[in-house]
Design goal:
Blueprint lengths: L28 H6 L8 E8 L2 E13 L2 E14 L2 E15 L2 E11 L2 E10 L2 E6 L2 E6 L4 E2 L12 E2 L6 E2 L2 E11 L5 E10 L4 E5 L5 E7 L5 E6 L1
Parallel strand pairs: 9-10
Antiparallel strand pairs: 1-2, 1-16, 2-3, 3-4, 4-5, 5-6, 6-7, 7-8, 10-11, 12-13, 13-14, 14-15, 15-16
Protein backbone atom coordinates (compact mmCIF):
# COMPACT_ATOMS: atom_id res chain seq x y z
CA UNK A 1 0.00 0.00 0.00
CA UNK A 2 1.37 3.40 -1.05
CA UNK A 3 -0.40 6.58 0.01
CA UNK A 4 0.60 9.55 -2.10
CA UNK A 5 3.12 12.16 -0.94
CA UNK A 6 0.54 14.79 -1.95
CA UNK A 7 -1.79 13.51 0.72
CA UNK A 8 -1.26 12.39 4.30
CA UNK A 9 1.62 9.97 4.05
CA UNK A 10 4.26 8.34 1.93
CA UNK A 11 4.48 4.60 2.45
CA UNK A 12 5.52 1.47 0.67
CA UNK A 13 7.04 -2.00 0.74
CA UNK A 14 10.48 -3.12 1.73
CA UNK A 15 13.40 -4.90 0.08
CA UNK A 16 16.90 -6.23 0.44
CA UNK A 17 19.23 -6.41 -2.54
CA UNK A 18 19.32 -10.21 -2.24
CA UNK A 19 17.37 -12.62 -4.44
CA UNK A 20 15.89 -15.37 -2.23
CA UNK A 21 16.41 -18.98 -3.24
CA UNK A 22 12.66 -19.56 -3.62
CA UNK A 23 12.49 -16.86 -6.30
CA UNK A 24 14.82 -18.75 -8.64
CA UNK A 25 13.15 -20.51 -11.57
CA UNK A 26 12.17 -24.05 -10.65
CA UNK A 27 12.29 -23.54 -6.88
CA UNK A 28 9.81 -25.70 -4.96
CA UNK A 29 6.48 -24.06 -4.14
CA UNK A 30 6.58 -25.54 -0.64
CA UNK A 31 9.71 -23.50 0.08
CA UNK A 32 7.77 -20.31 -0.68
CA UNK A 33 5.03 -21.30 1.76
CA UNK A 34 7.51 -21.93 4.56
CA UNK A 35 8.87 -18.38 4.28
CA UNK A 36 5.48 -16.71 4.88
CA UNK A 37 4.87 -15.91 8.55
CA UNK A 38 1.17 -15.53 9.34
CA UNK A 39 0.04 -14.70 12.90
CA UNK A 40 -1.43 -17.58 14.97
CA UNK A 41 -4.66 -15.61 15.51
CA UNK A 42 -4.92 -15.06 11.73
CA UNK A 43 -5.26 -11.30 12.32
CA UNK A 44 -2.53 -8.65 12.27
CA UNK A 45 -3.71 -5.21 13.33
CA UNK A 46 -2.14 -1.79 13.84
CA UNK A 47 -3.24 1.52 15.27
CA UNK A 48 -2.07 4.35 13.02
CA UNK A 49 -0.81 7.23 15.14
CA UNK A 50 -0.03 10.79 14.00
CA UNK A 51 1.72 13.08 16.48
CA UNK A 52 0.59 10.80 19.32
CA UNK A 53 -3.07 10.80 18.24
CA UNK A 54 -4.74 7.76 16.66
CA UNK A 55 -6.01 8.54 13.16
CA UNK A 56 -7.05 5.07 12.00
CA UNK A 57 -6.33 1.38 11.67
CA UNK A 58 -4.56 -1.04 9.35
CA UNK A 59 -5.83 -4.62 9.70
CA UNK A 60 -4.85 -7.79 7.84
CA UNK A 61 -6.75 -11.09 8.08
CA UNK A 62 -5.50 -14.48 6.93
CA UNK A 63 -7.56 -17.47 5.79
CA UNK A 64 -5.48 -20.64 5.33
CA UNK A 65 -6.87 -23.70 3.56
CA UNK A 66 -4.16 -26.29 3.01
CA UNK A 67 -1.49 -24.65 0.87
CA UNK A 68 -3.87 -21.85 -0.18
CA UNK A 69 -3.79 -18.51 1.60
CA UNK A 70 -6.16 -15.54 1.27
CA UNK A 71 -4.98 -12.24 2.75
CA UNK A 72 -7.39 -9.33 3.17
CA UNK A 73 -6.16 -5.83 3.98
CA UNK A 74 -8.29 -2.94 5.28
CA UNK A 75 -6.90 0.54 5.93
CA UNK A 76 -9.07 3.35 7.28
CA UNK A 77 -7.51 6.76 8.04
CA UNK A 78 -9.09 10.10 8.90
CA UNK A 79 -7.55 13.41 9.96
CA UNK A 80 -9.67 16.30 11.12
CA UNK A 81 -10.18 19.22 13.45
CA UNK A 82 -13.12 18.65 15.76
CA UNK A 83 -16.10 17.52 13.62
CA UNK A 84 -14.42 18.67 10.39
CA UNK A 85 -12.64 15.99 8.32
CA UNK A 86 -9.59 17.36 6.52
CA UNK A 87 -8.35 14.13 4.97
CA UNK A 88 -9.73 10.63 4.51
CA UNK A 89 -8.05 7.54 3.07
CA UNK A 90 -9.34 3.99 2.61
CA UNK A 91 -7.62 1.00 1.06
CA UNK A 92 -8.79 -2.59 0.63
CA UNK A 93 -6.76 -5.38 -0.92
CA UNK A 94 -7.12 -9.13 -1.38
CA UNK A 95 -4.18 -11.42 -2.18
CA UNK A 96 -4.68 -15.08 -3.08
CA UNK A 97 -1.68 -17.41 -2.83
CA UNK A 98 -1.95 -20.98 -4.15
CA UNK A 99 0.72 -23.53 -3.23
CA UNK A 100 2.94 -20.67 -2.14
CA UNK A 101 2.66 -18.74 -5.42
CA UNK A 102 0.86 -15.42 -5.82
CA UNK A 103 -2.27 -16.20 -7.83
CA UNK A 104 -4.31 -12.98 -7.79
CA UNK A 105 -4.36 -9.43 -6.42
CA UNK A 106 -7.31 -7.01 -6.28
CA UNK A 107 -7.22 -3.59 -4.62
CA UNK A 108 -9.34 -0.46 -4.32
CA UNK A 109 -8.24 2.81 -2.72
CA UNK A 110 -9.86 6.17 -2.08
CA UNK A 111 -7.15 8.79 -1.58
CA UNK A 112 -9.23 11.69 -0.26
CA UNK A 113 -11.71 11.35 -3.12
CA UNK A 114 -9.26 10.10 -5.74
CA UNK A 115 -9.97 6.45 -6.67
CA UNK A 116 -7.27 3.91 -7.54
CA UNK A 117 -7.46 0.23 -8.48
CA UNK A 118 -5.02 -2.61 -9.14
CA UNK A 119 -5.63 -6.08 -10.54
CA UNK A 120 -3.16 -8.94 -10.88
CA UNK A 121 -3.64 -12.43 -12.28
CA UNK A 122 -1.41 -15.50 -12.67
CA UNK A 123 -1.27 -16.64 -16.30
CA UNK A 124 0.80 -19.11 -18.30
CA UNK A 125 3.24 -16.30 -19.11
CA UNK A 126 3.60 -14.96 -15.57
CA UNK A 127 1.86 -12.65 -13.11
CA UNK A 128 0.09 -9.89 -15.08
CA UNK A 129 -0.53 -6.56 -13.32
CA UNK A 130 -2.55 -3.51 -14.32
CA UNK A 131 -3.34 -0.41 -12.27
CA UNK A 132 -4.37 3.21 -12.28
CA UNK A 133 -0.80 4.29 -13.07
CA UNK A 134 0.47 1.07 -14.62
CA UNK A 135 -0.37 -0.23 -18.10
CA UNK A 136 -0.59 -4.03 -18.24
CA UNK A 137 2.80 -5.66 -17.57
CA UNK A 138 4.32 -8.97 -16.49
CA UNK A 139 5.80 -8.70 -12.99
CA UNK A 140 9.20 -10.27 -12.24
CA UNK A 141 9.10 -13.73 -10.64
CA UNK A 142 10.19 -12.34 -7.26
CA UNK A 143 7.81 -9.35 -7.16
CA UNK A 144 5.55 -9.24 -4.09
CA UNK A 145 2.59 -6.95 -3.31
CA UNK A 146 3.43 -4.12 -0.94
CA UNK A 147 1.08 -5.28 1.78
CA UNK A 148 3.98 -5.51 4.25
CA UNK A 149 3.02 -8.73 6.05
CA UNK A 150 5.32 -10.88 3.90
CA UNK A 151 8.90 -10.38 5.12
CA UNK A 152 10.17 -11.32 1.67
CA UNK A 153 9.07 -8.00 0.25
CA UNK A 154 12.60 -7.23 1.45
CA UNK A 155 14.07 -9.55 -1.17
CA UNK A 156 12.85 -8.19 -4.48
CA UNK A 157 10.75 -5.64 -6.36
CA UNK A 158 7.40 -4.55 -4.98
CA UNK A 159 4.02 -4.16 -6.64
CA UNK A 160 2.53 -0.87 -5.47
CA UNK A 161 -0.93 -1.95 -4.35
CA UNK A 162 -2.41 1.51 -4.66
CA UNK A 163 -1.65 2.17 -8.34
CA UNK A 164 0.09 -0.97 -9.70
CA UNK A 165 3.55 0.44 -10.38
CA UNK A 166 6.61 -1.76 -9.93
CA UNK A 167 8.98 -0.23 -7.38
CA UNK A 168 12.60 -0.83 -6.34
CA UNK A 169 13.39 1.03 -3.10
CA UNK A 170 16.87 0.86 -1.61
CA UNK A 171 16.97 -1.02 1.70
CA UNK A 172 19.37 -0.41 4.58
CA UNK A 173 19.32 -2.79 7.59
CA UNK A 174 19.39 -0.68 10.78
CA UNK A 175 19.69 -3.30 13.52
CA UNK A 176 17.37 -4.36 16.34
CA UNK A 177 15.09 -1.81 18.04
CA UNK A 178 12.54 -1.61 20.84
CA UNK A 179 9.34 -0.26 19.26
CA UNK A 180 6.01 0.70 20.87
CA UNK A 181 2.87 -1.44 20.72
CA UNK A 182 -0.72 -0.23 21.04
CA UNK A 183 -1.32 -1.86 24.44
CA UNK A 184 1.70 -0.11 25.94
CA UNK A 185 5.29 -1.19 26.35
CA UNK A 186 7.62 -2.27 23.55
CA UNK A 187 8.72 -5.25 21.50
CA UNK A 188 12.07 -5.97 19.88
CA UNK A 189 12.19 -6.03 16.08
CA UNK A 190 14.63 -5.65 13.19
CA UNK A 191 14.48 -2.28 11.49
CA UNK A 192 14.95 -1.61 7.77
CA UNK A 193 15.15 1.88 6.26
CA UNK A 194 13.77 2.44 2.75
CA UNK A 195 14.81 5.19 0.39
CA UNK A 196 14.25 6.01 -3.28
CA UNK A 197 10.83 4.84 -4.51
CA UNK A 198 9.53 4.87 -0.92
CA UNK A 199 10.82 6.59 2.22
CA UNK A 200 10.00 4.90 5.52
CA UNK A 201 11.23 2.59 8.29
CA UNK A 202 9.69 -0.86 8.75
CA UNK A 203 10.20 -3.51 11.42
CA UNK A 204 9.86 -7.32 11.56
CA UNK A 205 10.00 -9.45 14.68
CA UNK A 206 11.83 -12.75 15.06
CA UNK A 207 8.99 -14.95 13.75
CA UNK A 208 9.29 -12.95 11.27
CA UNK A 209 6.00 -11.01 11.34
CA UNK A 210 5.48 -7.37 10.43
CA UNK A 211 5.88 -5.41 13.66
CA UNK A 212 5.75 -1.69 12.86
CA UNK A 213 6.14 1.17 10.43
CA UNK A 214 7.04 4.85 10.60
CA UNK A 215 7.37 7.69 8.10
CA UNK A 216 6.83 11.40 7.74
CA UNK A 217 3.60 12.76 6.28
CA UNK A 218 3.58 15.40 3.58
CA UNK A 219 3.12 18.06 6.27
CA UNK A 220 6.17 16.80 8.19
CA UNK A 221 4.22 15.07 10.96
CA UNK A 222 5.40 11.63 12.11
CA UNK A 223 3.18 8.61 11.39
CA UNK A 224 3.74 5.49 13.51
CA UNK A 225 2.14 2.04 13.24
CA UNK A 226 1.69 0.41 16.65
CA UNK A 227 0.83 -3.28 16.56
CA UNK A 228 -2.33 -4.21 18.44
Amino acid sequence: MIISRRSLVVAGGTFLCIRPSWAEPGAAASAKVSLMATPPAKVLGFDVVRDKSKIGTHVLTFDQAGDNLIVNVAVELKVGVGPITLFRYTHHATEVWKNGQLFSLDTESDDDGKPNIVTGRRTETGFMVEGTKAPLYTAPDNAIPATHWNRHMLDGPMINTQDGRLMHPTITPMGNDAIPVAAGGTIMADRFALSGDAVLDTWYDSTPSWAGLSFKAGDGSLIIYERV
